[in-house]
Amino acid sequence: MINIDSTVSQAPPKVEVSNLNFYYGDKQAIKNVNLVLPKNKITALIGPSGCGKTTLLRCFNRMHDLYDGNRYEGEIVLDGQVNILSRRIDPIEVRMRVGMVFQRPNPFPKSIFENVAYGLRVRGEKNKSFIADKVEEALKAAALWDEVSDRLKDMAFTLSGGQQQRLCIARALATDPELILFDEPTSALDPIATRNIEDLMDGLKKRVTILIVTHSMQQAARLSDYTAFMYMGEMLECDRTEVIFKQAAQLRTRDYVSGQFG
Amino acid sequence: MTTSLSPSSTPLSPIQLSVVQRKRSSNLFAVVGIVSIAIALMTLIALVLQLFIQGFPKLNWQFLTSFADPEASLAGVLAALVGSCLVMLVTASTAVPVGIGAGLYLEEYIARNKFSALIEINVTNLAGVPSIVYGLLALGLFKYYFNLGESILTAGLTLALLVLPVVIVATREAIRAIPSSLREAAYAMGASKSQMVFDHLLPYAFGNILTGVIIGLSRAIGETAPLVTIGALTFIAFLPDSPIQSGFPFISFEWLKAPFTVLPIQMFNWVSRPEPEFQVNAAAAGIVLLSLTLMMNSIAIYLRYRIQKNLKW
């Protein structure tokens, strides 16, 4: 059951998911999901372990294509124009418009500068000053510039966990994606680093649409504009965050957000 | 000294007994390990020491710059040393790129089916094929069918065949050890498969790949049987043409076609002679061979060090 009142929020949909089914081989992991991601807003995906949140997230940038036996049915339409699940669309093209930040920080084993520059290089960008400007811009947007501006040539591994995760965010930002997917980005970090990243994400939504999977309901309540509750592969309810947490329509949603299970 | 939780006069509790027993097994295993290392090290040291003691007196500039000679005091390893170096050059420049390329293809690109499983089993088995079999193969293929003759090129290619499975397996293992989080990060940035392989997998795995290359090349430099099969000479009194020429086009490949000998064959030849001076020569040649192997490995280790530290050239 979805209730996105876009006239009130004045947020046009960035992505619309219609009748999405996903199969790992014979096992169906996502059942008939419909979802709308409003533009320049943060939508959180919550639900108990194993409900399919991360599976759903990874459909948005075709990550499942990397492994054999996976199958999509249904559509995910970007800007009302392109169905990114279509076989005619190259997954590489999708990933150039949709960025991802993973659960465990996974910077490349390269320097800080090269990590952020990689997305640009992969697109064939050769202009050195353009790349340098973009890297600085991305590191500033990720609130990391002040800490690393004097050591851009150092290896990314010399950074702390929280800094590495912000580096991964900068890396995703450098290519100006339209949608960024966050897969439990702070679950491996300490509370201070978590706070930094949440503040950062709040500022980011001016320029990107964000979809975040989170295990922490408190984080969803703090951070997101819209929350979608998943259960056993189905999208049970999706609404403004205040509604989901205070007066959800479905009993199971109310039980989950009040901590009765999960 | 750990204090027990009960006074020493009382019998040990089951927990304490279990701890004592397990500590005893641990210590026993450590002792067995140390004894094994000691035996292996001492054998190695004894061998090398004996080689040095016997051969060191003969090790001088004259030895290194003279050709073989029926007179033991005049004989030297020049032809064999140059031969070994040139053959290893051909081997390394063939086996390393082909081996790494094949390993990358087999690990990343080939479709997983019965056919590719068959290839994988066979490549791994090839690493264990006796070297003389490679000699026979090279005899028929390189020397006669391709008509490359008894040359440095033939020798280099023969040893390359030997080294190839080792490099392929090392490459595959090195790539397999890379966590999938790195691949996913690269793909998530919009990289194509080849970009992911060459920008990320290969640089990250290169250190381990080089280790496999070192192992393979070290085996090749000491091989005698396959080279004898394809016709390495035991007595040579000249060097092949230099690769650098003074006239146009300044680089010559004539040396690839030249006849040759290598250090292990020269050693074998000398050891077979009755005169004790030749035994000394053989030991000295053995020292030269060991040093050459060490130098080759040092270059590879140095390369690996620089790559792993990501140092700029």
Structure, explained:
- The complex is a heterodimer of chains A (262) and B (313).
- Chain A has 262 residues and is of the alpha/beta class.
- Chain A contains 11 helices and 10 strands.
- Chain A has a single domain, classed as Rossmann fold (3-Layer(aba) Sandwich).
- Helix content of chain A is 35%, strand content 26%.
- In chain A, the strands form 2 sheets. Chain A has a 6-stranded mixed β-sheet with strand order 6-7-8-3-9-10. In chain A, strands 2-1-4-5 form a 4-stranded antiparallel β-sheet, with no helix packed on it.
- The radius of gyration of chain A is 18 Å and the shape is globular.
- Chain A starts with 5 loop residues before the first helix and ends in a 5-residue tail after the last helix.
- The relative contact order of chain A is 0.19.
- Chain B has 313 residues and is an all-alpha fold.
- The model of chain B has no long low-confidence stretch (mean pLDDT 88).
- The interface between A and B is medium-sized, with 26 and 19 residues.
